[in-house]
């Protein structure tokens, strides 16, 4: 099976390279991060100066010129096209009721600064108390419910700034 890679250099040059072309590359590893490369009868001294595997970005020095490179496999491209990205979190700006219930307690006020996992409010549903916690750090923009109010599923409860 042939694997292809989408390569972007310095956010300018965009091209595809396949596994066969990578295998044909004449390289000699000199150290953990340094390589000697022969290409078209020319010699290149290369060094990987920075590598971020999660973002698939690298800085490579070739004969004293640094290039910033992003390398994505076919699967990475497909995942991104589908709207999913590895390592990227979605910022939640609203808390909605996960089920119908009764607001027993509100632990925050408008303008309150909260941390991730702080308890925002208590929702009673099916005779059980459910603590709704903050999915992220932030500041409370609005509180759309009051203590003692009955809420429907997906009703807006709290918004973040």
From TrEMBL:
Give the InterPro entries listed for this entry: Biotin_BS, Biotin_Carboxyl_Carrier/Decarb, Biotin_lipoyl, Single_hybrid_motif
State the superkingdom.
Bacteria
Residue ranges occupied by any Lipoyl-binding domain in the UniProt entry: 83-161
One Pfam family named in its UniProt record: Biotin_lipoyl
Alphabetical list of PROSITE patterns matching this protein: BIOTIN, BIOTINYL_LIPOYL
PANTHER family, sorted: OXALOACETATE DECARBOXYLASE ALPHA CHAIN
Q: What is this protein called?
A: Acetyl-CoA carboxylase biotin carboxyl carrier protein subunit
Q: Tell me which species this is from.
A: Polaribacter sejongensis
């Amino acid at each position: 099976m042939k694997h292809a890679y989408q390569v972007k250099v310095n956010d300018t040059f965009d091209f595809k390279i396949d596994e066969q072309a990578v295998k044909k590359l004449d390289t000699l590893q000199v150290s953990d991060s340094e390589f000697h490369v022969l290409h078209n009868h020319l010699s290149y001294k290369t060094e990987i100066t920075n590598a971020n595997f999660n973002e698939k970005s690298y800085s490579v020095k070739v004969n004293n010129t640094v290039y910033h490179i992003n390398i994505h496999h076919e699967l990475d491209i497909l995942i991104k096209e589908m709207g999913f990205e590895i390592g990227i979190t979605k910022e939640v700006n609203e808390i909605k009721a996960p089920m119908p219930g009764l607001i027993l307690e509100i632990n925050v006020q408008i303008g309150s600064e909260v941390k991730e996992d702080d308890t925002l409010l208590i929702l009673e549903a099916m005779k059980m108390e459910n603590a709704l916690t903050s999915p992220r750090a932030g500041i409370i923009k609005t509180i759309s419910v009051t203590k003692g109010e009955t809420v429907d599923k997906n009703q807006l409860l709290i918004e973040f700034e």
